[in-house]
Recover the amino acids of this structure.
């Protein structure tokens, strides 16, 4: 690519396996994952990173009302998208067919109390024996670019063996204000077992918004399903009643039988019993 960011990574990527034929690959794979990746017909190219330092704005919800804090939701989306886009740009620079083991995390620094760093990392990989890992680039995402996946190498191998491929690491987020209780409500509930209906409804609504948005991302990526779904709950730098619900997973699509990888096809085994 002639244009990508950040340029600070130019030197590192130029000396990586995907950047030059004499380069050294880097990865966050364990030894077992590295071996399985080779068995699946892929080779690591380089450890790729995307980062964004982001100042989260201010939005106050109504004290006694459940509601989404849309300004904060949009900030969380924008920051993660910047990090993911820069990680993918590094993979494109290396000519990768995909990124495995994607991790998306946040980090705070003592010198920036209202600032969070959003970091996306993973290992860029290339299919052995042909561009795109097969006919018509079957292993790449439908848009022709590198797929992204948070699956481990073990699960990635099993997915290919089942006749499916990862498309994209997808997410949905919602920052939601959970209503406060009045002093009278708290007094009436003192010493009683009962469901907190306002809290229950708020949590339901927030989680559904996050999950629904993740599904929309998968549909836009032309995937047929999502595996490894996880819903995390975080408070971050806001007050105790403003909570983020983050749904993540790997969107996948099934391949036709003619595109199945021979490397991941089930292999016959022979078991010799030691009983006399």
């Amino acid at each position: 690519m002639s244009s990508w960011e950040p340029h600070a990574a130019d030197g590192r990527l130029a000396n990586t396996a995907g950047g030059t034929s004499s380069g050294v690959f880097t990865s966050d794979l364990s030894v077992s994952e590295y071996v399985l990746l080779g068995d699946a017909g892929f080779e690591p190219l380089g450890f790729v990173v995307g980062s964004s330092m982001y100042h989260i704005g201010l939005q106050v919800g109504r004290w006694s009302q459940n509601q989404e804090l849309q300004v904060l939701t949009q900030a969380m989306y924008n920051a993660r998208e910047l990090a993911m886009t820069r990680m993918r740009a590094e993979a494109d620079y290396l000519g990768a067919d995909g990124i495995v083991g994607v991790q998306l995390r946040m980090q705070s620094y003592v010198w920036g109390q209202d600032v969070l760093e959003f970091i996306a990392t993973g290992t860029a990989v290339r299919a052995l024996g042909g561009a795109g890992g097969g006919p018509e680039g079957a292993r790449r995402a439908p848009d022709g670019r590198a797929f992204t996946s948070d699956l481990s190498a073990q699960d990635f191998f099993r997915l290919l063996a089942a006749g499916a491929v990862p498309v994209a690491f997808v997410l949905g987020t919602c920052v939601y204000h959970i209503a406060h209780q009045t002093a009278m409500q708290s007094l009436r509930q003192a010493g009683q077992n009962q469901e907190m209906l306002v809290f229950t409804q708020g949590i339901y609504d927030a989680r559904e918004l996050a999950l629904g948005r993740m599904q929309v991302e998968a549909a836009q990526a032309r995937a047929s399903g999502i595996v490894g779904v996880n819903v995390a709950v975080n408070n971050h730098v806001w007050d105790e009643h403003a909570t983020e619900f983050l749904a993540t997973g790997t969107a996948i699509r099934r391949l036709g039988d003619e595109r199945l990888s021979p490397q991941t096809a089930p292999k016959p085994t022979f078991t010799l019993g030691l009983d006399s």
Remarks:
- The two ends are 64 Å apart (CA to CA).
- Strands lie at 42-55, 67-68, 98-109, 112-127, 147-148, 164-177, 225-234, 242-254.
- The chain has a mean pLDDT of 82.
- The longest strand covers residues 112-127.
